[in-house]
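Hi, here's the filled form for the chain we discussed.

Project: internal
Contact: R.S.
Residues: 428
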Amino acid sequence: MSKILIRGAKVLGGEAQDVLIDGETIAAVGTDLDAGDATVIEAAGQVLLPGLVDLHTHLREPGREDSETVLTGTRAAASGGYTAVFAMANTFPVADTAGVVEQVWRLGKESGYCDVQPIGAVTVGLEGKQLAELGAMHESAARVTVFSDDGKCVDDAVMMRRALEYVKAFGGVVAQHAQEPRLTEGAQMNEGIVSAELGLGGWPAVAEESIIARDVLLAEHVGSRVHICHLSTAGSVEIVRWAKSRGIDVTAEVTPHHLLLTDELVRSYDPVYKVNPPLRTQADVLALREALADGTIDIVATDHAPHPHEDKDCEWAAAAMGMVGLETALAVVHQTMVETGLLDWAGVAERMSFAPARIGGLPHHGRPVSAGEPANLTLVDTSYRGVVDPAHFASRSRNTPYEGRELPGRVTHTFLRGRATVVDGTLA
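And the returned structure, exactly as it came back:
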């Protein structure tokens, strides 16, 4: 593998430095490095980050290859600056056995664009009645450490307790989709002024908050780890903040769309804005941004949820929930957190690379940009501004809420173990 010299990039947004990649490893970081026989990338003014890590991606394969495959999903991830993604278990068949998680893991290895770490289901078939093969999935070649029934809540308290007890034995974590199902029957959007005016079934904040409150107490009781998926309300922030103040081992994520979009957009009845959990109020959005800035919320995760055209091009009530997000996540965080002064680029690296790799147990991702470390890197032109056009997406699906919206920044290069997967903004 040839050498690559990234010249003059602002490492984590700091001083301009040169970074020499030799094979799969960062060989040197400094100023005025000798290029020698290396290919030179002139990166003056650009920001160099560790490769991004997404703890919450839906790749749909096996079973829903009409919306996404591991190959198209990892191509989308690389385009967005990601070098590793965690693939959720709600596939067909469900990833609740060692065989299925190994299939997804091997497909990821074959793709070559991004490392894929499968997430195992907590319960058989996501049905909440019987624990899945947690130990077997952890002992498989995929080495699963994160378990989730995402798309469904593990609403039975005894089942959740047993799962927390089980994964504690090998340092695993249960990632909870916090949604009390009885409180969201028939729900179509956030419960509030807009839902009342539109006559759509409301999705109350307490449906999320009550499960989070229960689960942090269970985690404390068991002495295990719990991770809260796609936290979306100001009340949820306060519960997580309280839990952390008690020393409970809880982490939480927020999606880019919950950092930017509000339930006012549902007035258009455009199903592209239909998502689970729903878009909330502006007050919730501001609370989420502050919580991400102060560390109450640990990470940004995309909840990349691709759907074929027919599942979104229909009336609101019949439409599927979810948005694609891998290719726009960094730009949304740039707009909502960096341009607002809430985070610097080192803070972005912590929340989109270091912390998700740490939570998910990926030792070779989310590493410092320094000599001897794996060359998983993302180069970003922060001066760029462009209008989102889903026709150019690498994802198989186009259900983005940002179509036609101007967003800042562009990933120009992504490197996976020293090999360029994106060059000058184009997939290699």
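Let me know if anything looks off before we file it.
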